[in-house]
Design a protein that fits this description.
By secondary structure, the protein is an alpha+beta fold. It folds into two domains: 75 residues, Dna Ligase, domain 1 (2-Layer Sandwich); 92 residues. Helix content is 59%, strand content 8%. The longest helix has 51 residues.
């Protein structure tokens, strides 16, 4: 069963609602509705699944039959938590390594930021599957940028240690030659 959004008389988006739950909402024939899979908003009377909203014979019977189902079935879907967006982490793996060592590899974090921004957008539109997918992609790119940044910092630390060892050994070699 689809879950619908609708635009109220003030132009605000409301949702999500099952067709039975829409009976308690001020939805009229010309109210714009949308559900996942629709390309654009449609008038409620144009959606076949919502025809029961405007059928006077079914309006008397359906609420009593549908009430137990609506209280049990939609609750988990309506209570779904937004997937982790990874926004803070992706910003950190973009900015901090760049500030520490001017690594252009940290710019991979921008990809993570783009995916992180999509998570909330998809979730608010009611597309939970796309929100989860964007969350996974943001997490993947955040981890990639983080490991590259860690590797880059470790490489710099190793280079500094090797320089000190080399300079120290050259000084020791010079003292050995002078004696």
């Amino acid at each position: 069963m689809n879950r619908y959004f609708y635009i109220d008389t003030e132009g605000k988006q409301k949702g999500t609602f099952s067709p039975e739950e829409l009976r308690q909402e001020p939805v009229k024939r010309d109210t714009l509705v949308w559900t996942q899979g629709m390309e654009q908003w449609k008038r409620a009377e144009e959606v076949a699944e919502l025809s029961l909203l405007f059928d006077p014979t079914s309006s008397m019977q359906a609420p009593t039959m549908a009430t137990p189902q609506t209280s049990a079935a939609p609750t988990p879907q309506a209570q779904q938590m937004m997937p982790k967006s990874w926004m803070v982490e992706s910003i950190l793996v973009t900015i901090l390594p760049f500030m520490l060592c001017s690594s252009f590899f940290s710019l991979l974090g921008i990809i993570a930021i783009v995916y992180a921004a999509q998570v909330e957008s998809f979730f608010n539109r009611g597309d939970y599957a796309a929100a989860v997918e964007a969350s996974h992609a943001a997490g993947k790119w955040t981890r990639i940028a983080m490991w590259i940044a860690i590797g880059w910092v470790l490489l710099i630390i190793i280079a500094i240690i090797l320089i000190f060892v080399f300079v120290g050994s050259m000084a020791g070699l010079g003292e050995l030659l002078n004696t």
